[in-house]
Specification:
This protein folds into 2 domains: 153 residues, Ferritin; 148 residues, no CATH class. It is built from 10 helices and no strands. It is mainly α and 318 residues long. It is elongated. Helix 2 packs antiparallel against helix 4 and helix 5 packs antiparallel against helix 7. 75% of the residues lie in helices and 0% in strands.
């Protein structure tokens, strides 16, 4: 993946063109899906789609003037720091809450991109256009926030559900939760393989600690190297990596700690109960923070976790 701080002005414009085209198509899809149930909101998204198309045309005109006809293919997934968006067709049927949340996220992220890109540009014309587009994205963000005021009951609104907080949630909290889930599941096989191979609680505990710490270090470095924070404003990559690594290690230590109990049968029984509680908690976390239906999350996590658990027991008993 490319580092935002190393993109040239030509590449910044090419990326901006790609972003505007994607956002325009997403807003057009919102309008199409909401037209029957919420016609006024659908009209607003159709207008926002047209505005994004207008932004793209302005960017294309300036790009041709500065760099010619050939535009390098640079997409959001090619640059570190952008939020991974769920495709619209996976969210059907679309509700106002889903649309509002994604629209706010899109505009907050695009606004930040233009603000950072304008600050890096040394060409006056490019800097002015990027700054103007950042201001227009702020207006779009306000439109998305108005949906909440109009359609979401006051009792269901909370100040912390602002666009920037949602961006923080997706970029900081979810990676930490992903680390917790990874640590909980990935350490099951080595822990229970050691348990049933040795029937020694202390050696099993050491294996569990080693697996948890190793997974934490691996996840920590992966998170730290994934994004330097120059585009997203997510802060120090080493701070984020430390948090992700710590959560991963904690996820594995949960079912390793029972093996401090000297009696093997008691320790294994308690560790097994802890595993079930962890898998249930992970299912709830995926529902709460990752928009996954609870039954679907439970099926995926619990079945997957139990398969890993069974693999460890099978290998250890061989």
């Amino acid at each position: 993946m490319l580092d935002f701080s190393k993109l040239t002005e030509r590449e910044l414009l090419a990326l901006a063109i790609s972003l505007e085209e994607e956002d325009s198509r997403i807003y057009d899809e919102f309008a199409e899906q909401l037209r029957e149930t919420y016609p006024d909101t659908a009209k607003m998204f159709a207008a926002m789609s047209e505005e994004e198309t207008g932004h793209r045309h302005r960017l294309l005109s300036l790009y041709r003037e500065k760099f010619g006809e050939r535009i390098p293919l640079i997409r959001r997934q090619d640059v570190r720091g952008f939020v991974t968006r769920k495709p619209v067709w996976l969210s059907r049927p679309l509700g106002l809450e889903t649309v509002r949340a994604q629209a706010e996220l899109m505009e907050a992220e695009t606004k930040r991109f233009y603000t950072r890109a304008a600050g890096r540009s040394t060409d006056a014309a490019i800097r002015q256009l990027l700054g103007d587009l950042a201001a227009e994205e702020r207006r779009h963000e306000a439109k998305a926030e108005q949906l909440e005021e109009k359609f979401v009951p006051a009792g269901a609104r909370h100040e912390e559900h602002e666009a920037e907080r949602r961006l923080f949630l997706l970029q900081i909290v979810q990676p930490g939760l992903a680390g917790l889930m990874d640590g909980s599941v990935s350490t099951l096989a080595p822990l229970f393989a050691a348990a049933f191979a040795t029937h020694d609680t202390w050696e099993t505990f050491l294996v569990g600690v080693a697996a948890s710490v190793g997974a934490g270090i691996s996840m920590g470095f992966a998170e730290a190297l994934s994004d330097d924070g120059s585009l997203t404003g997510r802060g120090s990559p080493w701070l984020r990596g430390s948090a992700s690594g710590l959560m991963t290690a904690l996820g594995g230590l949960g079912h390793a700690l029972p093996y401090l109990i000297p009696d093997f049968a008691t320790a294994t029984t308690i560790a097994s109960i802890v595993v079930l509680l962890e898998l249930f908690a992970i299912s709830w976390i995926r529902k709460r923070y990752m928009d996954t239906p609870f039954l679907k999350a439970a099926f995926q996590v619990i079945i997957g976790g139990l398969l890993v658990f069974a693999a460890g027991v099978f290998i250890g008993s061989a």
